Amino acid sequence: MTTRLNPYLNFQNTAKDAMEFYQTVFGGTLALSTFGDYQATEDPAEKDKIMHGMLTGDNDVILMGADVPSYLEFSPNSSVSLSGDEEAVLRGWWDKLADGATIAEPLTQAPWGDTFGMLTDKFDVPWLVNIEGAPQG
């Protein structure tokens, strides 16, 4: 049996575009279900909105997301953190996420010895990227 902890992102009418964008970043398989697929809305304007999206990306990345229906209050997302020691993979993700993003902290060497950066992507999702440096001895 497997247990996972993975982010579930909230969007306001952009979940489909966002999840398709994340598939270009992380690869893998994307499954999208609309509110209309499950007759989960009586509002015709929301039938094509995403009720549940799941990206099963490469490198064991799992990312979920959905459009928040109009009858619920939208709350902004917390930061999503990507970290590890596979520099090429993490830099590649950073470069793709940076397309149209606001860079809060460029991906550079941090005081703790790792390479670190912060950005908010074009769908207003904040991301942190930390590439582990050589162990300090």
Automatic annotation (TrEMBL):
InterPro entries, alphabetized: Glyas_Bleomycin-R_OHBP_Dase, PhnB-like
Residue ranges occupied by any PhnB-like domain in the UniProt entry: 5-129
Name under which the protein is recorded: PhnB-like domain-containing protein
Classification lineage: Bacteria, Bacillati, Actinomycetota, Actinomycetes, Micrococcales
